[in-house]
Design goal:
The protein has 133 residues and is mainly alpha-helical. It has a domain of 86 residues. Helices cover 74% and strands 0% of the residues. It is built from four helices and no strands. α2 runs antiparallel to α3 and α3 runs antiparallel to α4. The N and C termini lie far apart (61 Å).
């Protein structure tokens, strides 16, 4: 007589949530505007903070899409450098949006530090990648 093996409920829930997230992520990525959403904000500067947050999310989604579309070389070091460069560029974009739209002097100071650090690291990735050709 064969035994029936039951899959734990949490495993089934996790599988369903993963599938739902996957569909949701691809839909959100496709729905993310290619241009800056603040350009079409009907209330102009009245919702400048909200537009900045929307711009950040759109920038993040575009960066994630760029990383997902990046063909992997099979060279872990090279793939790491290329993906981290994209990731750091997204941090730069977000920090620049903070400088443009943010109100907090503390967050603006942090954004300036992030910009300096990320630019330095991107340059290091570029230098290393240039040697790999």
């Amino acid at each position: 007589m064969k035994r029936i093996k039951f899959v734990p409920l949490h495993a089934l829930c996790l599988a369903a949530l993963t599938a739902l997230w996957s569909v949701s992520a691809s839909t959100q990525t496709q729905a993310a505007p290619a241009t800056s959403p603040s350009v079409s904000t009907p209330m102009g500067d009245m919702h400048k903070g909200a537009a900045g947050a929307t711009d950040m999310k759109a920038s993040m989604m575009m960066g994630m899409e760029e990383m997902q579309k990046m063909p992997m070389t099979g060279n872990t070091d090279k793939d790491f450098a290329m993906m981290m460069k994209i990731h750091h560029q997204q941090a730069l974009n977000m920090a620049e949006m903070e400088l443009k739209n943010g109100k907090s002097s503390e967050m603006k100071a942090m954004a300036k530090q992030i910009i300096a650090a990320q630019k330095k690291e991107i340059a290091q990735f570029d230098k290393w990648l240039a040697k790999q050709k």
